[in-house]
User: What shape does this take?
Amino acid sequence: MTAEPTEGPRHRLVAGQDEPGERVDRWLAARLPDLSRSRVKALIEAGCLTSERRTIDEASERVKPGAAYVLTVPEAAPAGLAAQALDLDVVFEDEALIVIDKPAGLVVHPAPGNPDRTLVNALIAHCGESLVGIGGERRPGIVHRLDKDTSGLIVAAKTEAAHQGLVAQFAARSIERSYLALVWGRPRPEAGTITGNIGRSPRNRKKMAVVRRGGKPATTRYKTLRHLAGDRVSLIECRLETGRTHQIRVHLASRGHPLLGDPLYGRGDRQRLMALAAGRESAPPPLARQALHARSLGFAHPTSRETLRFESKIPRDMKDLLDYLEDI
Assistant: This one.
């Protein structure tokens, strides 16, 4: 049984005598920045808007000059997801958002095969009552994702206004995101841009691919930082202009430079590493996931507009392998 949301704050707004008579959902959303227009529309359709003792349930109704409107916003309801306390590396947190340095192996959002013990479950437990609500539910607003086995920085919103602000920045491509990746081979040119629509692979539905027809446009900029193991491995930096599923992994593999440790887009990875170690006293350190780390994240705070920028150190497993390859 799901608990019914309790009545929350009431917003009373009076239309000016010279109001142009626009749609009431658009008019309210413009004056209530903490609520998205879709949220306002849903509230109206749920019977939460009244004017002169009359309930308004049509979001398209036109605003009447001089009329008073009262919008009641129910308290955010539980998200229906378990709150599960997990160790989180919190880089930044305030009343609007939270930035986490995610370890490899942690799934971001519940999905078939990973129904719980995800970052979302952990954030519900960690943030508690400070989660004001996204779309009427007390849950964090995930605006971008990292693959389960990609480590690094990720931001989540705690309020609807913060969620809207971050979504707008991602849509405008004004968010700074850089990744470190260990790839096979030496990219040529040393720096460049990879473009190509990404969609579901027609040969393997578990994989994404650069496709000629359909898919979504994707752009990845890369720069080679270091050559390793006699140019057989490279450390590169990637910056995303778009955020498609597996984008970096797919784009680099399409150029013949799959990530080390990538079980989906690489092949024969362990054998290739052991070949690099031929004649050495020690074997290469294990890497149980793709060598991809979200190193930096920068954006304007959606409430204060302050510029925020965070950087994460390369994780131990990638650092150990990097040090080993530098000695070859």
Observations:
- Confidence is low (pLDDT under 50) at residues 1-6.
- The two ends are 61 Å apart (CA to CA).
- The CA atoms of residues 218 and 243 lie 7 Å apart.
